[in-house]
Amino acid sequence: MTSQITGRPERLRQERRVVTEIPGPKSRELQERRVGAVPPGVGSVLPVYVTDAGGGVVVDVDGNSLIDFGSGIAVTGVGNASPRVVERVKEQVERFTHTCFMVAPYESYVAVCEALNRITPGDHEKRSFLVNSGAEAVENAVKIARYATGRQAVVAFDHGFHGRTLLTMTLTAKSMPYKHGFGPYAPEVYRMPPAYAYRWPTGPGNCGPEAAAQAIDQITKQIGPLNVAAVVIEPIQGEGGFIDHAPGFLPAIAEFCQANGIMLIADEVQTGFARTGDMFACDHEGVVPDIIAMAKGIAGGLPLGAVTGRADLMDKVHGGGLGGTYGGNPLACEAALAVLEEIEAGGLVERARWIGETMVPRLRALAEKHDVIGDVRGRGAMIAIELVRGASKEPNPELTAEIVRRCHAAGLLVLTAGTYGNVVRFLPPLVIPEHLLVEGLGILESAFED
Ligand SMILES: *Cc1c(COP(=O)(O)O)cnc(C)c1O
Prior knowledge:
It comes from Actinomadura rudentiformis. By secondary structure, the protein is of the alpha/beta class.
């Protein structure tokens, strides 16, 4: 079979194939070994042990081929072991694997930064540097904002997720499992309500402007704008349940930041790189952040994070103030360059929109039939359903777990999200073949029928 996107032959058969229970006997054996070696604090959504993955499937040790609606949490947008990524990384791994950019630099790092400066929102002069993860990107963005403003307070939002390090865990809204027992947290972090249209008291139509006014009022009264270094926000909240702030909210927050010398940091770690049907989710409403944190979809599965920001801010920090041993590892840089080529050559921004246009009408029809689906939301290939107990909108995490369990058993890999664990989220690889996308939706529909 030939890929609809790359025009190259698919290495793996693009089919759903369930030949054992899921997880199967070999996976269960490996799971037993794991329990003796890995602490339970590191969880797995579905403990099938993977041997292969590509296009729209993940293959396990028992020979099952699962339809992938997760992309390793929005990482393998270009597909797993995407041919361009493999070629570039192979070529690089045979030349050198590491020098440390802070010791002796190499061109690919610079090329990635040039590309990021070009494709991120806004046509002002920018600088970028590379790190290893999303958390590290967010943490560095905050460091720069504090340095550049000389201020300390950082505003984050309810339902937000920004990582698992001390500062990013503090910025994260949800106690269990991310923060519980891990305190004390970093100081000077304040939390505001986001524009959660589905649960906005006066209705979704008023949500954007009212939520912005409320957040701005609280920042003004509780902290004082002149004390605020940065507002850190996910343009669509990921782990919090794909909460896409109501229209008008982000532009109003951006305007408030600009008027008060506050750095707007967009955490585009989950939303970036074509996922939402724009290269970055901020592009949707034309919001131009001062600093952007990126990771996940940037390098097709190789560990890479990035910070891009206004040149005048980024250039302020003293030499040696930013960096890290592995940041911008040459293999990850080659992978990122391949990803950027693939997004363009494969038309993946448009493809993400098409995925949304395919999924959303089917999900809305499903919600018409089942009043336990309270909301269908998201953009592009970042779509979710929120499950409730009917008109009360009371969260329904039990049903969510049951639906996900049935999907897994039928060979569809889906993830949950949401502060109340009542959101099923869909993050298919942008290169998923149409027939697998449609088949996956069918499995989800059957799970609700049952
Ligand atoms: C995943 C995620 C992070 C953390 O990224 P890591 O690479 O796991 O450190 C930060 N912000 C958002 C929005 C994320 O989705």
